[in-house]
Amino acid sequence: MRYILILSIVMLSCRQEGLEMKNLRVEGKNFIDPSGRSVYLKGINLSGSTKMPYSPYAASHVKDGFYDYKNVSFVGRPFPLEEADEHLSRLKSWGFNFLRLLITWEAIEHEGPGIYDQEYLSYLRKVVEKAAEYKINVLIDPHQDVWSRFTGGSGAPAWTLEKVGFDLTKLDPSGSAITHNNFGDPYPRMLWPSNYSKMATATMFTLFFGGNDFAPKTLIEGVPVQDYLQEHYFRAIQEVVKSLEGLPNVIGYETLNEPSEGWIGLDDLNRADYGIRKGPSPSAFQSMVLAYGRSQKVENWEYVLGQGYVQLDSITILNKQEVSAWRNSEEALWRNNGVWSLNEKGDPILNVLDYFKLDDKTFEEDYFKPFAIAFIEAIRQFDKEATVFIEPQLGKRPPNWSDDDPSNIVDASHWYDVQTLLLKTYNPDTTINFFTNEVIIGSSNVERSFADYLGQIQKRTWNTLGKVPTLIGEFGVPMDLDNGAAFQKGDFTAQIKALDAYYDGLEENLLHSTIWNYTPVNTNARGDQWNGEDLSIFSRDQQANPDDINSGGRALDAFVRPYAAFTGGELQQMSFDLETKMFRMTFAADSKIDAPTLIYVPNYHYPKEISVEVTNGRFEYDRVSQQLKYFPEGSDSEHTIIIKPKA
User: Fold this and answer.
1) Residue 440's beta-bridge partner residues?
2) What does the alpha-carbon distance between residue 600 and residue 579 come to, in Å, rounded to a whole number?
3) What is the tens place of the pLDDT at every residue in 546-602?
4) Backbone angles phi, psi at 444, to 5 degrees
């Protein structure tokens, strides 16, 4: 069968010289392999469905068994082990040399505090070992979205909410969260991020990062709530580190996916126009009142094309049934900490309008940075050489880092073309600058803005964390643009144009990246099986021929592209023109490096002979392994390599 043949070719290519990337180290703004070459990480997130248990079946639209959180298993996420060769060989064939491998705190410790799922940890090790067979390096990403599955996202175990007094079953009815499981179908497009500013998620993040300051009266088992939550999180990830001991393809660990400041820094608890707004958007104080079991008239917001992304749509009433989110009224956490109280009529009144205001502090320096340093120390108790990828809030800066702070770190910021992501339509002639909310018109200006924004992320990193590598940990495009037009027509042109523009921006700035995402169980009907998202570059529903390793791929033209995987010196420039198929790279050679510069040259774009131009020296091209090795001549000097289809 053709698939088996291709699989054997990929396995053969994995054994070729130069593909081993063990023990990468961070040196300045580069990743360096043992031979001294700089390594360019072109990776992918694996996988979107890892946010949910594998058994029993638990996609976000499934309500049955939703609250039976103790009796679940994540063994099988991202895929059953018997499918590992299929998926990893495909990713390797497509040129990916790096995985941002998703795990969740819930997967490790779902049954209760200190109860770790050893079967899952054993399974996880086998997945990473399998990736090593394909010479694919791995970053472990403790993933979360709006705190937990039970607050509309993924990540933290259910018991974290229960420990602070929440009744899981009352979060949706009280307006404290909006979950797909309870809302039902159709679940409004990109509604889930609105949970960041709702009661349950905002409370948990405020407690996690700042509970010692903002909820000093809240203790769990006699321990301050912030210390209790962070300590359990650290210990859970330490269990992962211990389970992966000795695996050389584990580069390191990420602090936490897309962290949130919660209400920390909010200077007016009556404001509703903060955070990501979609649908009913109560103010912070209204959220507290709703959770106490009182109905509220709240603003209803909608995404729009134009400045600001959102606009006020209407006024709606939440919690008409006056359901309390707390197991009992005595557990109203923010009331107990003095933020609000009841007047003589029994009505809630706000005591301190700016309770969460920061005067001489910032979230980044005084709350996130201590967490990040504690995370690094916890990880390095069991893996002293681990690189730690520090991910700031989406669109926000990392904390300032000094020479006295831990080294061997990487910035893991995310970037999305927000207009395309939120509205699920790609217009090559218009976008919005995420920094300034400026509307940008004209295709060339739009593409320029992508590269400029990504360049600003890198400069921001160098101004805060220092001259360390930047990995864009997430970027991508919805495959269900324009109500799934590509599924009906089989035409992914819009997605190809978008991804090509994104990769152009990444390559212009020489930024490492992991595209979001590859989901083995993706379908056209349910996407990535989570909250209506559909960004997977692979789907069974597009897999017409299982024997063809490319079958099932979506928008392959854009992401299967040549790149300089290993460079014998300092990579200075790299680009790929999708129309002409011309690849060009320039680097400053280092004569002390004996190993060749290695370029991934995909057969997908070069099915026939190629033309190669080099400054001097010689090259070797191997179509089976899809790689070109370049051996320059002379002392330290600048070299250029150009690859294009042979005329």
Assistant:
1) 431
2) 18
3) 999 999 999 999 999 999 999 999 999 999 999 999 999 999 999 999 999 999 999
4) -65, -35
CA distance 310 to 305: 8
Cα gap 324→289, rounded to integer Å: 9
Q: Compute CA 210 distance to the chain's CA centroid, rounded to the nearest angstrom.
A: 23
Phi, psi (deg, nearest 5) at residue 14: -65, -25
Instruction: Please check the confidence at residue 165 and state whether its pLDDT lies above 90.
Output: yes
* SS3 at position 37: coil
- 3-state secondary structure at position 162: helix
Going by C-beta distance under 8 Å and a sequence separation of 6 or more, which residues neighbour residue 617? 630, 631, 632, 633, 634, 639
pLDDT at 2 over 60: no
pTM metric for this prediction: 0.95
Output the CA–CA distances (angstroms, integers) from residue 403 to 406, 409, 467, in the order listed: 8, 12, 12
Centre a 10 Å sphere on the Cβ of residue 224 and count the other Cβ atoms it contains.
17
Separation between Cα atoms, residue 265 and residue 286, nearest integer Å: 17
Dist CA 437 CA 604 (whole Å): 38
Q: What is the C-alpha separation between 334 and 576, in angstroms, rounded?
A: 54
Phi, psi of 200 (to 5 degrees): -65, -55
Residue type at 191?
L
| Phi, psi dihedral angles at 224 (to 5 degrees) | -50, 140
CA dist list (Å): 136 to 89, 187, 257, 397, 529: 10, 36, 21, 29, 26
Residue 441 β-bridge partners: 430
Q: Is 604 exposed, middle or buried (0-12, 13-18, 19+ CB in 10 A)?
A: middle
Cα-Cα-Cα-Cα torsion 572, 582, 90, 391, nearest 10 degrees, comes to 30
d(C-alpha 541, C-alpha 526), whole Å:
11
Q: Measured between alpha carbons, how far apart are the two ends of the chain, in Å? A: 32
Instruction: Outline where DSSP puts E strands in 128-191.
Output: 137-142
Counting residues of the chain whose pLDDT is more than 70, the rounded percentage is 95
Region of 540 please: left (phi>0), alpha (psi -120 to 50) or beta.
alpha
DSSP strand E in 442-508: where?
A: 471-472
Active site residues: 258, 474
Distance of CA 541 to the CA centre of its chain: 24
The answer to whether the beta carbons of residues 49 and 77 sit under 8 Å apart is: yes
DSSP string of 252-264, one letter each residue: EEES-SS---TTT
The alpha carbons of the chain give a radius of gyration, in whole angstroms, of 25
Angle, CA of 287, 293 and 299, to the nearest 5°: 40
Q: pLDDT, tens digit, for every residue of 325-366?
A: 999 988 899 999 999 999 999 999 999 999 999 999 999 999
Q: Is 333 helix (H, G, I), strand (E, B) or coil?
A: helix
Reported as a single tens digit per residue, the pLDDT across 78-120 is 999 999 999 999 999 999 999 999 999 999 999 999 999 999 9
- CA-based nearest residue to 630, from 594, 581, 604: 594
Where does 545-631 have alpha helices with state H?
556-559
Q: At CA 548, angle to CA 545 and CA 551, rounded to 5?
A: 65
pLDDT at res. 304: 79
